[in-house]
Design brief:
The complex is a heterodimer. By secondary structure, chain A is of the alpha+beta class. Chain A has helices at 6-73, 145-195, 211-261, 265-295, 308-325, 344-361, 393-397, 415-425; strands at 80-85, 91-94, 110-114, 123-131, 137-143, 304-307, 330-333, 339-342, 366-373, 376-382, 429-434, 439-446. The radius of gyration of chain A is 48 Å and the shape is rod-shaped. In chain B, 40% of the residues lie in helices and 22% in strands. Chain B is elongated and about 60 Å long. In chain B, the strands form three sheets. Chain B has a five-stranded parallel sheet, with helices on both faces. A four-stranded antiparallel sheet of chain B has the order 6-7-8-9, with helices on one face. Chain B has a three-stranded antiparallel sheet with strand order 10-12-11. The chains are: A alpha+beta, B alpha/beta.
């Protein structure tokens, strides 16, 4: 999962390139120096060899031996390896004790570890064996021991440097990832605030015109569109409310007037029924509008800190006498004070709907419980009735659905949809659970700041 | 002298109903069908109450209200609105209106609320300690209720309900007025929850008495008082 994240990939790429660059730089320089050192050593030895061969050609073996001994005494030839043996292999001159074992005549130089005369430990040197006319053997070469030690030190230093560069590469990867995140943070924050209901918020510009600014610009344009659509929705629902309610007002007035005029008992009951049906029609329109507005996130500007336990105590107080008259009971189980910002009227209506459902479709005692959670609060209404079978619960939440056509509770099947819409408006959800026996309906409210 | 009401409402049908109803109740009604005329009449003063539609041609209802309050007119204002969402209601109440009624409404509801805001305007809130209606007496300090010497034992919620009724003796209070006034609850439960409260209270107050005090007003609500 993490390996597929773009920031992770980017960080990994930065890291990899950094390490490769450091390795090439450090090991490359080492290899270059090493090869240069070999060339130098070979050139030096070749120059000596040419001189010595000239001496041999001029004066034979004895002249060569003299030349070698003379050279051995010169400080400039300190690193030189020179050795002359006769045809039987006896040493004649030079700073080796014998012809190195395993050194065959060759045109090239071989790296060997030999102990020169006067030294105790073997030293690294490039050597070449030349067979002289007349059976003598000449060994020429250059000691490179100090360079070898220097290279070994450099190698250790290089390893440390590569280690450090890995560290730096890690840091660079981390820093570049953070940089990306920081650039995106403004956009993320803005979207967060918009989702919470501040539709007018936009990503602030930072004066650049890079990819991030381009993204912010696109996000802002999309938010403009969302805000416009939302405003249109609000206008449309307000207009709908107005257009539907004005005739309903007139209808109610007319019926009101009528009820004062008619004396005949039969007509009176018909008028009463018409009044109650028009009231029901209004309630359906009202609730539908409330659901639409809540689901669209309209109304967040009305959030105020409300003591939820006080609100629930009030609600239980209002419903208690009617429930008690039914021979049932309603109990409140809430901590003393839980205050969080909510849409008070909608919470009242939502919990009222849950209690109403428990009255109409439930049985036994009704319990209203308030839980404080890490992310807000939850209000649960439980009863001891038959509940709703699990496979029907999704249907129970759908708009205009009633589970049982025989249930004529007077609602239009909007009750739970409204509760759900109110939950969504508060960043929460509505859960229906089995509470053996009975149904538990839990309204979860997420708090932007933790409930206190 | 009859009390004068200013009705600012552009919908002629609604205006007719309301004006006729108020006239029948003995009020003198002046009408304006747009915001500009309404503001002109309203600043003239002399009204006991202004009933103001929120959506008006010309000058919007909220603008009329703001202009009235800006001009120092303190006449109680009841806003009528088709916008029933709680935030609209809060906005309306916050901008200086005395009450807010959502369309459609029963005329009795409007009438009850008009009487309430007029009464509220007259009676300078005296810190009363004893409320009375005939031989029913409520001592707010001792939290004791008695009727003709008989002590009535009330639950806290019954006490609050009776207190609200006694503060509005002889006035019709609707179910929604009770929900708002007693419980500060702005959602009509739509069932008979309030009726149960009232019938319990009635049982305690009126049972065994010759003269019932708590009356049900058909199609409107309740009234406490001597008159049946």
């Amino acid at each position: 999962m993490i390996s597929r994240s773009t920031t992770f990939r980017f960080a990994a790429l930065v890291f990899f390139l950094q390490v490769v660059a450091a390795a090439i730089l450090l090991f490359g320089v080492g290899a270059l120096l090493r090869s240069q050192s070999r060339t130098d050593a070979v050139d030096l030895a070749e120059a000596s060899r040419a001189d010595l061969l000239t001496a041999h050609a001029r004066g034979g073996t004895s002249a060569l031996a003299e030349e070698i001994t003379a050279r051995m005494n010169r400080p400039a030839e300190r690193s030189a390896v020179l050795f002359l043996a006769d045809s039987q292999g006896r040493a004649l001159a030079g700073n080796l004790s014998r012809v190195p074992l395993g050194l065959a005549e060759s045109r090239s130089y071989t790296l060997m570890h030999l102990i020169p005369i006067g030294q105790e430990a073997p030293e690294a040197m490039f050597v070449r064996l030349t067979a002289l006319p007349g059976g003598g053997r000449l060994v020429t070469g250059t000691v490179v021991e100090s360079e070898r030690q220097l290279f070994a030190q450099m190698e250790r230093a290089t390893l440390v440097a590569v280690g450090l560069s890995i560290l730096f590469a890690g840091f660079a990867a981390f820093a570049s990832t953070r940089l990306i995140l920081n650039r995106l943070q403004a956009t993320i924050k803005t979207l967060d605030r918009v989702r919470e209901g501040d539709l007018a918020r936009r990503v602030p510009g930072d004066g650049t015109s890079d990819a991030f600014a381009l993204l912010a610009d696109q996000v802002n344009r999309t938010l403009d569109r969302v805000e416009a659509l939302n405003a249109q929705l609000k206008l449309a629902t307000d207009a709908l409310a107005h257009d539907l309610k004005s005739p309903l007002t007139r209808l109610q007035f007319a019926l009101d007037n009528l009820s004062h005029i008619v004396d005949e008992p039969g007509a009176q009951s018909a008028v009463d029924q018409a009044i109650s049906e028009s009231g029901r029609l209004l309630a359906i329109v009202d609730t539908s509008l409330s659901i639409t507005r809540a689901e669209a996130g309209l109304g967040k500007e009305s959030f105020r800190p409300v003591d939820l336990s006080g609100l629930l105590a009030n609600l239980v107080d209002i419903y208690a006498p009617m429930i008690e008259d039914d021979g049932r009971a309603i109990v409140l189980d809430a901590p003393s004070t839980v205050t969080m910002p909510v849409h008070r009227q909608l919470i009242e209506q939502a919990v009222g709907n849950l209690v109403d459902n428990a009255i109409k479709y439930g049985a036994g005692a009704i319990t209203v419980t308030l839980f404080v959670r890490d992310d807000g609060a939850a209000i649960q209404v439980t009863d001891e009735g038959p509940g709703i079978p699990e496979q029907q619960r999704a249907k129970a939440l759908a708009r205009f659905s009633r589970l049982d056509q025989a249930r004529r509770g007077g609602g239009a099947g909007l009750g739970l949809s409204l509760v759900q819409a109110v939950a969504h408006l508060h960043g929460g959800s509505l859960e229906l659970n089995e509470c053996s026996p009975g149904l538990g309906a839990t309204l979860i409210l997420a708090s932007p700041n933790k409930a206190s | 002298m009859a009390q004068k009401i200013l009705l600012i409402e552009d919908d002629p049908t609604t205006a007719d109903f309301v004006a006729n109803g108020l006239a029948e109740e003995g009020f003198v009604v002046d009408r304006a069908n747009n915001g500009r005329d309404g503001l002109f009449l309203g600043t003239d003063g002399g009204y006991s109450c202004i009933v103001l539609d929120r959506m008006l041609p010309g000058l919007d209802g909220m603008a009329v209200l703001a202009a009235l309050r800006g001009a120092g007119i303190t006449t109680p204002v009841i806003i009528l609105s088709a916008l029933g969402s709680p935030e609209d209601r809060i906005k309306g109440l916050n901008s200086g209106s005395d009450d807010y009624l959502v369309k459609p409404f029963a005329f009795a509801e409007l009438l009850a609320r008009i009487r309430l805001v007029i009464r509220r305007g007259i009676s300078v809130a005296m810190p009363e300690t004893v409320l009375r209606c005939e031989d029913l007496e409520m001592d707010l300090l001792a939290r004791r209720v008695q009727r003709g010497g008989r002590v009535i034992d009330l639950q806290p919620r019954e006490f609050r309900l009776l207190e609200f009724l006694l503060r509005h003796v002889d006035q019709v209070v609707t179910r929604t007025i009770l929900l708002e006034g007693v419980w500060d609850y702005h959602f009509d439960p739509g069932t008979n929850v309030i009726d149960v409260h009232l019938s319990r209270l009635r049982k305690k107050i009126d049972d065994g008495e010759d003269k019932p005090l708590l009356h049900t007003v058909r199609g409107a609500g309740y009234r406490i008082g001597a008159q049946p």
